[in-house]
Amino acid sequence: MNVDPFIEAEKIAGHNVKRTCELLKVSRTAYYARRNGLPGPRAVRDAELTEQSTVVHQRSRGSYGAPRVHAVLKREGDGCGRRRVARLMRQAGLVGRHRRRRHRTTVPDPHAVTRPDLVLRDFQPDPAAIDTRWCGDITTAEGWLYLASVIDIASRRVVGWATAGHLRTEPVADALTTACRTRRPAGPVIFHSNRGCQYTSRELATMATDFDIRLSVGRTGQCWDNALAESLFPTLKNELGDSQPRPSRAAAHTAIFEWIESWYNLHRLHSSLGYRSPPNTRLPWQPDQHTKGVRQSRKSSGVTVGMKHYPAEFKADAVALYRSRPGATIKSVAIDLEVNTETMRNRIRAADGRRSGAHSALATAAKSDDDGVQAELAAARERIRELEEERDILRRAARYFAAETRW
């Protein structure tokens, strides 16, 4: 039932609109918004967030879903909840790209040399360990075009990649060579992969020895042992839009180059990096080099001067100690108690103020009691007036809605 006409009638008659809305459990802001024909503040904010989410979604080439759109909006200073962004994107028809099933390209060589797993599923980013651990994999990128990649585990950057029309060792070796010549690591590098025949071949082992690379492989049938490298390809296929095949391998190679070098390595937000791009990989848990040490007390207890929260009992005891020493100074008592001198002085002043106020309190007690009785009577009269007003509003509402339902 629409109660706005009754509230409007009360307003025209000069009655209290606020009290009427409270009794009918109607938002006064919503009533005035409907009365003026203007959207409420939440609707206006939803429209702004929808427009901003659309811009971010288009800027990500239609690949970002609600989590990354929310991260971008939060970074730009637009405070809102993730579920709210998801709701607005759903209403606007904005959908991120979803992963599709991958093709099997890992074919182990039964005669390959056994190598250890030097990573052990430790794919945590670490800015202090850049170019010390890499991982890679190979997959079909477009038709019969295959893509081999090399990813720096510490920064999530694709440091090397190559394409070819076959699944032999050449694209894997080319991608690893590109990574070594581009990054020029200062020390030995661990290169982790699966047990595909390309990664266990003699050709790759010889090249790894020349570049001072230690080869590491996961277990057979355990995709989680190389999860970081595996996750790159679904992301590429989803965000690159493999639903629209390229006319040639050269066009597909160009699209991959543009996606990796101008988007993935420079601007794309990575959830494992705290929604940062690879060039900005300082994590929240890293200590700030410019943070200054905390000033400690002159004693060895480690209590911070001026920062300790003392209970009321301690404050009262400190003042009593000072008064029990006629010849002592505030500074000497503060040193003994290991507190700030100014803090001690403020406590003594506050205690002196309370002592002087106690004498005047007795003189005004009788007058306060009389004033309290008068205040209670005035509050009771005001409450009676409010109840009578509510009774009249409810009576008028009952007559109004009875007449409406009669038809």
Topology:
Elements: H1 4-12, H2 17-24, H3 28-36, H4 41-59, H5 66-75, H6 82-92, E1 133-142, E2 145-152, E3 158-164, H7 169-183, E4 189-193, H8 202-210, E5 213-217, H9 227-240, H10 249-264, H11 312-323, H12 330-337, H13 341-363, H14 365-405
Parallel strand pairs: 1-4, 4-5
Antiparallel strand pairs: 1-2, 2-3
Helix pairs in contact: 4-5, 4-6, 5-6, 11-13, 12-13
Could you please describe the fold and organization of this structure?
The chain has 407 residues and is of the alpha/beta class. The chain has three domains: 4-92, no CATH class; 127-273, Ribonuclease H-like superfamily/Ribonuclease H (Nucleotidyltransferase, domain 5); 312-363. It contains 14 helices and five strands. Helix 4 (41-59) crosses helix 5 (66-75), helix 4 (41-59) packs across helix 6 (82-92) and helix 11 packs across helix 13 (341-363). The radius of gyration is 36 Å and the shape is flat.
Key words describing this protein structure:
single chain; 407 residues; alpha/beta; Nucleotidyltransferase, domain 5; 3 domains; five-stranded mixed beta sheet
